[in-house]
C-alpha cells in the first residue's frame, strides 16, 4: 500500500505542507501586521491600529523618488528584455544552426553566475568604458539578469504552437512577417505578457547588481536596505513594502491566470482541430 495515500500518510503530508506554508508566509504576515501597528519602533507589544505609516510614506520624498526610479528601470528592463527574448526564443525553437547549444548556454548563463560577480564585472566595464552610473546602467544589468527567465517563459509556449499554422498561412500567400504577426504572435502573446511581468518584477526587486551600478539615484530595494540601520524610519518603509508586495502579487496572479486561460484555449483548439 502506498503510504502517501494512507490515512496516516495524508496526515503527515498535510502537516508538512502546513509547516511549509507557515515557513513561507509567516514573515509576510508579520510584515503586514507591523505596517498597521501604532508604534514608532518595529517591535511588540501591539499599541493599536493605525494608518499613519501609509500616510507617512506618501510624504516621504526620498522614498517616492526611489519608487519612481525602480518603476522606470523596471519598465525599460521589461520592454527591452521581451524585445530580445522573443526573437531569441523563435531562433532557438524554430531554427537549426551551428553552435545552437553554445548559444543557448550563453543566453542562460546569467542564471548560474553569482550576482555579486556580475555586479562587479558591470562596474568595472562601465568605469573602463567611461559610462557614468545611472538608472540606465541599472537597467542594462537587469536586462541581462532577466533575459534567461523571459526566454524560459516564452520557449515552452512557442514549442506548443504548431509550426504548421505558419506554413499553412504562407501556402495561402502570406509573407513570413504577416504569418508571424497574424498567427504566431497572438498565440504567443500570453507568454510574452508573462515574460514582461516577470522581467518587471525581477528588476523592481533586484538589489545586488543595482548596488554596484546605481550611481546617485537608488532604487527602492536599495533605499529599503539603507533604512534598515535606522529603526525609526522602518514603519513607513514597511507600509510601502506591503503595498508593493500586494501589487506584485495581484499582477503575477493575473498574468498566471491569463496564461492558464490561453493555454486551455490553445489545447481546446488543437483538440477540436484534431477531431
What does this structure look like?
This protein is an all-alpha fold. The protein has one domain: Orthogonal Bundle (MetI-like fold), CATH 1.10.3720.10. It contains eleven helices and no strands. The chain has helices spanning 7-35, 52-57, 61-94, 100-108, 115-129, 135-159, 163-171, 176-205, 208-213, 220-227, 234-274. It starts with 6 loop residues before the first helix and ends with a helix.
Q: What characterizes the major β-sheet? A: none
> What count of domains describes the coordinates?
1
The ordered string of helix (H) and strand (E) elements is HHHHHHHHHHH
Mean pLDDT: 82
- As a whole number of angstroms, the C-alpha radius of gyration is 23 Å
CATH topology: MetI-like fold
Write down how many β-strands occur, each being a DSSP E stretch of 2 or more residues. 0
Question: With helices defined by DSSP (H or I, 4 residues minimum), what is the helix count?
Answer: 11
DSSP helix fraction: over 70%
How does the overall form come out from the CA principal axes? Answer: globular
Structure class: mainly alpha
What is the first-to-last residue Cα distance? Answer: 39 Å
Question: What is the CATH architecture assignment?
Answer: Orthogonal Bundle
* Uncertain segments: none
CATH class: Mainly Alpha
> What proportion strand?
under 5%
CATH superfamily: MetI-like
In short:
The chain is mainly alpha-helical.
Brief descriptors of the model:
single chain, mainly alpha, MetI-like fold
Amino acid at each position: 500500500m502506498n503510504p502517501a495515500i494512507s490515512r496516516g500518510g495524508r496526515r503527515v503530508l498535510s502537516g508538512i505542507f502546513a509547516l511549509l506554508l507557515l515557513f513561507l508566509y509567516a514573515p509576510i504576515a508579520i510584515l503586514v501586521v507591523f505596517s498597521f501597528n501604532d508604534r514608532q519602533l518595529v517591535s511588540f507589544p501591539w499599541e493599536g491600529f493605525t494608518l499613519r505609516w501609509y500616510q507617512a510614506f506618501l510624504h516621504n520624498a526620498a522614498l517616492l523618488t526611489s519608487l519612481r526610479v525602480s518603476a522606470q528601470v523596471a519598465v525599460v528592463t521589461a520592454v527591452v528584455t521581451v524585445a530580445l527574448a522573443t526573437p531569441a526564443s523563435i531562433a532557438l525553437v524554430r531554427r537549426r544552426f551551428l553552435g545552437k547549444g553554445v548559444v543557448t548556454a550563453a543566453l542562460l548563463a546569467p542564471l548560474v553566475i553569482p550576482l555579486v560577480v556580475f555586479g562587479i564585472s558591470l562596474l568595472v566595464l562601465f568605469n573602463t568604458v567611461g559610462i557614468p552610473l545611472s538608472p540606465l546602467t541599472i537597467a542594462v544589468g537587469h536586462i541581462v539578469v532577466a533575459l534567461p527567465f523571459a526566454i524560459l517563459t516564452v520557449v515552452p509556449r512557442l514549442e506548443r504552437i504548431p509550426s504548421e499554422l505558419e506554413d499553412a498561412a504562407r501556402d495561402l500567400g502570406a509573407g513570413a512577417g504577416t504569418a508571424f504577426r497574424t498567427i504566431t504572435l497572438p498565440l504567443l502573446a500570453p507568454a510574452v505578457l508573462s515574460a514582461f511581468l516577470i522581467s518587471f518584477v525581477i528588476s523592481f526587486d533586484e538589489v545586488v547588481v543595482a548596488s554596484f551600478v546605481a550611481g546617485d539615484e537608488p532604487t527602492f530595494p536599495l533605499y529599503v536596505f539603507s533604512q534598515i540601520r535606522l529603526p525609526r524610519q522602518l514603519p513607513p518603509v514597511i507600509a510601502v513594502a506591503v503595498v508593493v508586495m500586494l501589487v506584485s502579487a495581484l499582477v503575477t496572479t493575473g498574468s498566471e491566470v491569463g496564461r492558464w486561460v490561453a493555454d486551455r484555449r490553445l489545447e481546446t483548439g488543437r483538440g477540436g482541430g484534431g477531431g
